[in-house]
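INTERNAL AUDIT FORM
Audit reference: QA-55
Scope: verify that the stored structure record matches its stored sequence.
Auditor: D.O.
Record contents follow.
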Amino acid sequence: TLYSRLGGYDGIAKFVDTAFPRVAGHAQLRRLFQGHARDSQVRQRQLIVDALCQASGGPCAYTGRAMKPVHTGLGITSSDWTVFIGILGGALEELKVSAPDRREFLGLLERRFRPDVLESE
């Protein structure tokens, strides 16, 4: 499975810990992560790990809210998504995920999450 090829749970957790601080610190995207207490940030990280684990074919169960209502009102644009995917792709490359697996994973995110995350094109 893609889950296995990404390194299983530990590989996905390492990816999240590598990529998402960069996403949250990026000038264009940081507005989406401001104002969260440390406790909320820890819970958000775990939900992201679980969502990616489940989406890639792993044994995790995502127990968070649906993506659409979570992201409604944030004004996430296609430009934001492009920056986001660029950061994720760079983290996957840095973690030495193979090019075919990077393409498959980013394609999965595109199909599975983009429609519910973007608010405007």
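Auditor finding: record pair retrieved intact. Helices lie at 2-5, 8-25, 38-55, 67-71, 78-94, 99-112, 114-117.
Action required: none
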